[in-house]
Specification:
Layout lengths: L10 H8 L13 H17 L6 E5 L5 H8 L3 E6 L2 H14 L4 E5 L2 H7 L4 E7 L8 H11 E12 L3 H14 L16 H10 L2 E12 L4 E5 L5 E8 L2
Parallel strand pairs: 1-2, 1-4, 2-3, 4-5
Antiparallel strand pairs: 5-8, 6-7, 6-8
Helix pairs in contact: 2-3, 5-6, 6-8
Amino acid sequence: MIKTANQNSDPAELAKFSELAHRWWDEESEFRPLHQINPLRLDWINAICAVAGQTALDVGCGGGILADSLARKGAQVLGIDLSTKALRVAQLHALEAQTMGVTYREVSAEALAAESPACFDVVTCMEMLEHVPDPASVVRACASLVKPGGWVFFSTLNRSPKSFLYAIVGAEYVLNLLPRGTHEYAKMIRPSELAAYCRAAGLDVRQTKGMDYNPLTRRYTMVDSTAVNYLFATQKVG
């Protein structure tokens, strides 16, 4: 795989999500888990950093589920991704739903950081780091893109035995919540590793949370454990 400084992406990962792009806004599709967790992560972000009137960037926005909801909270949002098909779906949804204050661009975080450093009050990068070859590079780009004192939010999957059991075996093979092959265990990131990436990029980790799924109620909840899905709220130093 050839990777330049401005193209930190895996063609196989892009192809995988591009094939499903037309189903992003079908709440009973493979993206149902994203629709279910979106209100939880949105409320968590908004409680830490009220987004109304803020400039926000959603890195790896896909079909725009989080970007659209941030705009509906009153933020001026730019969603970026490298999947042309997913971005078209996001743009179409914004038109159909008449969502104001959200735009989309096909550009990498690294390229945008070189072009527009320190331009955003809030940066989100959710369920994306485990799908790129160099997650530390994305963290550095997010840190560059946010203004001093601004907030950067990450969510990803822990590389742990419990995460393998729940997120891969359970979610992909037993409960069929996600398409098989959605996640690769080797690409998952331990909280200690992500914290180190953040510190190296000048981001202070202010809060951590986890997410838990109850297969009986089919609902997600925010928890303190970071054993499987987890979220970081970080703030740019200075």
